[in-house]
Every structure is written in C-alpha cells, then in structure tokens.
Amino acid sequence: MARKPAEEVPSLRALEGVPLPQENPHLFGQEHAEQQILTAYRGNRLPHGLLLSGPVGVGKATLAFRLAKFLLAEPDPSANSVQKAVSLGIAPDHPIQRRVGEGAHPNVLHLQRPWDEKRKTFRTVISVETIRRIVPFVGTTAGEGLWRIVIVDGAEEMNRSAANALLKALEEPPVRTIFVLVTARPGQLLPTIRSRCRSFHFGLLSPEAIAQVFEALKVPQPPEKDLRTILSLASGSARRAIELARGDGLSLYRAINRAFASDDHAVLTAVANQAAAARGAAWAEFFDLVGGYLDRRIRHLPEPEKGVSPPELPLARWAELWEKIHRRSAEVETFNLDRRQFVLNVFEAVAEAVRHPHRPIFM
After folding, report:
1. Which GO terms describe its biological process (predicted)?
2. In 3D, which of 161, 157, 154 has the Cα closest to residue 180?
3. Do 162 and 130 meet the contact criterion of CB atoms below 8 Å apart?
C-alpha cells in the first residue's frame, strides 16, 4: 500500500498569495535600519546579536532574511562588492534567494512557534526544545568563510526556559554566527538578552511605502476611497493593509461602526453573527478593529471614514470598556466560549453605557 503523503505544515506568518518574509526580495520604508546594518558589516563591526523591533507587518522579518541572504552571498565584508553595495538586496535570480526562500539553506536556522500536528494549530509559545535546535546547528561545519544565521521570529513568544537557553547561546557566540531576534514587543524579552544585542527599531510605514508593497507583491488596490480608509486603519503596517484589502476587513469595520452607534437589537445581532462566523486570522482581525475603535475613542481621534459619528462617553468609561472587553476576549479564547454571545455582549455593553453613563458595566 502506498504511504499517504505527509500534509504540508502551514507557515505561521502566511498570507494567501503573498510571499513569506524568507521568499520576499523587496523591502520598503526601512532604509535607515538597513543602511545601519550594512554600514556595520562594511566596517567589520556587525554584532553577533541583532534585535529588530517594531510594529507587526513593517518589514522586520523580511530584513532579517534579507541580511541572511546578503551574508551568504557576500561572506567577506571587505570585498569590493560589499563596499559598493547600496543595500542588503541581492539579485532576484541568485541561487541563495531560492534556497533561503525554500528553507533549504543549511546555514540559516529559522525558529518560531512550532506547528502542533495533533491539535492542528500553532503552539502558544516558543519552547526550550525549539531553541535547543541552535546547539546542533552551530556545531555543524559552516564551510570555509561562510556565516551561520539564527533567526528567532517572534522572540517575545519564548517561554522562560527558552529565553534562558537563548541567553546562553548569546553569551558564548560561535565564530561567524549571527543571531537575529525579531520582535513586536521588545519589553517582554529578558533585559540580559536585550543587553547582548544591538537594537534596530523599525518605524511605521508611510502610505507611499505601503503602496510600493502593494505594487511589488501584486496586491490588487481597492478604490481610492476604500484605500484611504484601509491605510488609516492599517496604522503603518503593510501586513494589516493587505489583510484589510483582500479580506472582509473593511466590511467588518463598517459593520462595527454601525453596531457601536446603534442600540437596535436586530442591527447588533446581525453584526454579532458576521463577527462570530470569522475564524482564525479573521477573528483576530475583528478584535484588532474593535481595539482600534476603542483606542481612537480614548485618544479623542476621529474615525477614518467621513460621516461616522461615534457615541459620546467620558474617557474613563471608554477605558473601562476597553479593559473589560480585552479581559473577556481572553476568556473566550481560553475556554472556547460562545463567540456570538460575547460579541453581542460587547455591543450591548456600549449601548448600555451610553444610555446610563453612571451605571456599572457588566459583561
């Protein structure tokens, strides 16, 4: 009997139709960090630990792999080609592009939250077992003059044991081995890990840079009016903009606006049904949109779309709602509670707070 082929393991950062960071040869809007790293390499001053921090979806992982490819293609920092390089990009048809993109280069170790085959989901943390893969990796022969690159993607997701194991590797770095830590929350890393890395902060992308990403990755651009709303909601994140442009994000955002401005049970129920039907990334997107809406209320910012009139509440009430919704959403995820009822409770809590500004908020 023929053996059943193994199912392909999904990628943690995958967006349908969009290249993964290791496959993507393009980088936009982060020239400052790229030039700092290139300058350090040219001067033979590249640190063994690099910490790339910044918001989600702004190019941190892309630059990590871009650096890995450049080091493998240009292992000698004193080479004329390195001294004349204007970026860390290498030719799109260079063999290293393909090998790193396919995860097939023996000198690149990419570590992130692993896939749980039994539960068909990604694990919630990077465990010590994952980080311990570094030991045999750095113990192999890299080849004369070549680099080894360890990329820890989502480094803030390491548990304590994993963080301590990584710290040990950073304290005793092997020759010609570079550790690149990618994180959206550097404050969650051990201070001792941060102190052993040189930090490079990635800022939010400009609308122009996001437009370049759309063009380079061949993401269809929505109508101009929708694009303006998407860019505002994306808050400088190319990934967020792509998710909104390609999915039902804009429709969901408009539905959320209707629900927060209404106390009509039929309207609230319809939006709750739409949100509860979302799964995976779409469900996370719903909470990103709700969180963004509440954040704008707390900061007294207008909605991205004209003509939207959010309900009026004191700042303390919006902050209280945000805190209770955030806490309750974690319980829904942890205990697999009824999503539809939870969403309905969120909208009804806001409507009740508007009707009775001084009553306690219950969810």
Report:
1. DNA-templated DNA replication
2. 154
3. yes
Count of beta carbons in the 10 Å neighbourhood of residue 40: 16
Q: What is the rounded distance in angstroms from the CA atom of residue 301 to the CA atom of residue 318? A: 13
Give residue for tokens 């592009």: 97
Q: Count the Cβ atoms, other than its own, within 10 Å of residue 143.
A: 13
Number of folded domains that form the chain: 2
Burial of 139 (0-12, 13-18, 19+ CB in 10 A): exposed
Tell me the C-alpha distance between 117 and 125, whole Å: 15
3-state secondary structure of 338: coil
Angle (deg, nearest 10), helices 60-73 and 31-42:
30
**Of the candidates 93, 88, 84, the residue with the CA atom closest to the CA atom of residue 149:** 88
For 62-121, what is each residue's pLDDT tens digit?
999 999 999 999 999 999 999 999 999 999 999 999 999 999 999 999 999 999 888 888
Q: Is residue 362 part of a domain?
A: no
pTM of the model: 0.88
| Domain encompassing residue 177 | 31-201
Query: In 158-209, which ranges are E strands?
Result: 177-183, 198-201
The answer to whether residues 40 and 164 belong to one domain is yes
Give the angle 176-177-179 at the CA atoms, nearest 5°: 145
* Whole-number Å distance between alpha carbons of 178 and 52: 13
What element of type H or E holds 47? Answer: none
Q: pLDDT tens across 156-202, in order?
A: 999 999 999 999 999 999 999 999 999 999 999 999 999 999 999 99
